[in-house]
Amino acid sequence: MTTIKIKGMTCQHCVMAVTKALGGIEGVRDVRVDLAKGEATFAEEKPVDRRLIRERIVKAGFDVVD
Ligand SMILES: [Cu+2]
Question: What is the model's pTM?
Answer without folding.
Answer: 0.95
